[in-house]
Amino acid sequence: MTTRVACIGECMMELSERPDGSLLRGYGGDTLNTALYLARLGVAVDYVTALGDDPWSEEMLAAWAAEGVGTGQVRRLPGRMPGLYIIRTDGSGERSFHYWRDSAAARDLFSGPGAAGTRAALAGYDLVYASGISLSLYGEAGRAALAETCRAVRAKGGRVAFDTNYRPRGWPDKAKAQAAFRDAMAAADLIFASSEDLAWLYGREGEEEVLRHHGRCEIVLKGGGSPPSVRVLASDDDVTVQAPPVEAVVDTTAAGDSFAAAYMAARLAGRPPAEAASCGHRLAGAVIGHRGAVIPRAAMPDLPLTPALGRRS
Ligand code: ADP
């Protein structure tokens, strides 16, 4: 039986400003990156979000489908639009991000007509993946609905994965983020946590916040350093896996998103945690060697994933 994965979150329109002021259009989002790399690795994955009924929403759907990402659980909200951000690059090459996303359709995934259908559908997946950025979209009521949905997933024998991805600007205050991340980690079976995110959120107690779940769930703790290492704590394992050096780091966009995709694909294929971490490093290493979040297909590393379990035939 095919293992089905759902990635929950928001994809926004991306406009990159060029030196002459013209804008180059693309799209991007952390959990979408993970979904796209999961699909490339042969995993049956759906992206679960809400879009509008505008031409750009149509384009996104077509692009995701072309990458093999399932779009059957994308809700379309009439009259609404996707969020949007502009990337501005200053004279010294420093990039800044500017957002228009408060009324983005994706924020209403867990509210309004159709939300009950989304929740019921999510409960049927084998693995549901969300990030700290996903959490920041929904507000208290939406987060409560997501938490209840995750309980339903687990009650049916499915698993829940949470990737910390903390972006302070997505939250009204730090206390709300701290509480939401605590709840999400307590509800997860697999946690991807970056030491940096944890330190920003919880200060010196950061790692403790995640390590208290050791034994109850699988933890992938991404540390700093160059090349960085990850510590993987699973039932009987506590191993540290160093990333191989990358000759030229071009752009670290989607490093963590692609790492999570390869890690999950390897675990779904029955690989042990340390091997899954190596797969994560290999894919993330390829991703940071290229500009942008999505690398050319030809640049995808050939990861040692077993073809049978949990992969699209
Ligand atoms: P994010 O901040 O997006 O979560 P991280 O900095 O945690 O990303 O990096 C995710 C992964 O990307 C690392 O675990 C590693 O596999 C790879 N990576 C990032 N930076 C480097 C680097 N300098 N050299 C080699 N691999 C790297």
Automatic annotation (TrEMBL):
<dbReference type="GO" id="GO:0006974">
    <property type="term" value="P:DNA damage response"/>
</dbReference>
<comment type="similarity">
    <text>Belongs to the carbohydrate kinase PfkB family.</text>
</comment>
<dbReference type="GO" id="GO:0019698">
    <property type="term" value="P:D-galacturonate catabolic process"/>
</dbReference>
<keyword id="KW-0547">Nucleotide-binding</keyword>
<keyword id="KW-0067">ATP-binding</keyword>
<dbReference type="GO" id="GO:0005829">
    <property type="term" value="C:cytosol"/>
</dbReference>
<dbReference type="InterPro" id="IPR050306">
    <property type="entry name" value="PfkB_Carbo_kinase"/>
</dbReference>
<dbReference type="GO" id="GO:0042840">
    <property type="term" value="P:D-glucuronate catabolic process"/>
</dbReference>
<dbReference type="InterPro" id="IPR011611">
    <property type="entry name" value="PfkB_dom"/>
</dbReference>
<keyword id="KW-0119">Carbohydrate metabolism</keyword>
<comment type="function">
    <text>Catalyzes the phosphorylation of 2-keto-3-deoxygluconate (KDG) to produce 2-keto-3-deoxy-6-phosphogluconate (KDPG).</text>
</comment>
<keyword id="KW-0808">Transferase</keyword>
<dbReference type="InterPro" id="IPR002173">
    <property type="entry name" value="Carboh/pur_kinase_PfkB_CS"/>
</dbReference>
<keyword id="KW-0418">Kinase</keyword>
<dbReference type="Pfam" id="PF00294">
    <property type="entry name" value="PfkB"/>
</dbReference>
<comment type="pathway">
    <text>Carbohydrate acid metabolism; 2-dehydro-3-deoxy-D-gluconate degradation; D-glyceraldehyde 3-phosphate and pyruvate from 2-dehydro-3-deoxy-D-gluconate: step 1/2.</text>
</comment>
<dbReference type="GO" id="GO:0005524">
    <property type="term" value="F:ATP binding"/>
</dbReference>
<dbReference type="GO" id="GO:0008673">
    <property type="term" value="F:2-dehydro-3-deoxygluconokinase activity"/>
</dbReference>
<dbReference type="InterPro" id="IPR029056">
    <property type="entry name" value="Ribokinase-like"/>
</dbReference>
<feature type="domain" description="Carbohydrate kinase PfkB">
    <location>
        <begin position="3"/>
        <end position="295"/>
    </location>
</feature>
<protein>
    <recommendedName>
        <fullName>2-dehydro-3-deoxygluconokinase</fullName>
        <ecNumber>2.7.1.45</ecNumber>
    </recommendedName>
</protein>
